[in-house]
Write a structure and sequence with these properties.
The chain has 231 residues and is of the alpha+beta class. The protein has 2 domains: 124 residues, no CATH class; 104 residues, no CATH class. Helices cover 14% and strands 35% of the residues. It is built from 3 helices and 18 strands. The protein has a 4-stranded antiparallel sheet with strand order 4-7-8-9, covered by helices on one side. A 4-stranded antiparallel sheet has the order 6-5-10-11, with no helix packed on it. It has a 4-stranded antiparallel sheet with strand order 12-15-16-17, with no helix packed on it. Strand 13 and strand 14 form a beta hairpin. The longest helix is centred in the middle third of the chain and has 13 residues. It starts with 5 loop residues before the first strand and ends with a helix.
Amino acid sequence: MHTEGINRPNNGKVVDIFSRRCIDETTNKVIRLAPELDGLEMLYTNDSAPDKLYSLKIVCWALREDGEVVGMVPWLNEIVPCTEIDDPLNGHWEGYRDPGIDDIFFVPPKHKIVELESSSEYYEYQTESPDDVTQEIPDSIGTHAVLTNDGFQSFQLVELVSWQLKADGSINGMIIDESKDHQTPVLVGDECLVSVEDSLEFKYYFQHRIANKIKERDPEALAAISMLIES
């Protein structure tokens, strides 16, 4: 774990040496995001094929209050740290991968750590509410949200535009509210964007490869959805 910038006084509390604020280790919230723009991936396994490695594109890297940096992926119905994935088939994180050179590694790239620490020092937000938006980054991996209001008898796939980080550390996927006026292309921070996770119709996130297969009614993709419904 990367712990530069963290100080533990004699009273046992963890303090960020830059902000001088005490850190609640039980929450350890995300305080800064850096988009992944070089195609790095998460590797994972699950119980359906324990000898097979699967890959998933990383959407961003996150800096937590304790100084830890971790890759983030859309996983089921939320965006989560790669090291904490969990699913009905007992998914397990196995590492990170650079597909360009087929390199497997287990700690975040140094340049992302430096980027996050530097930007966190530069941008010191004074927030008044846990819902205050502290950062918004574009989705660069083609994430789609699945919406349904009839138990998957019918469903809609909606493309995400961005990910919004709030003061409480929560990260929400943002989609276009078609009922609001907007011009194309819709950019990060546009007033027509709303959190998909606030919708009662929202069920899951899928990356573009799977989303396209679902659109094409690919039998394996539809079977995967059926398995999630049964779970």
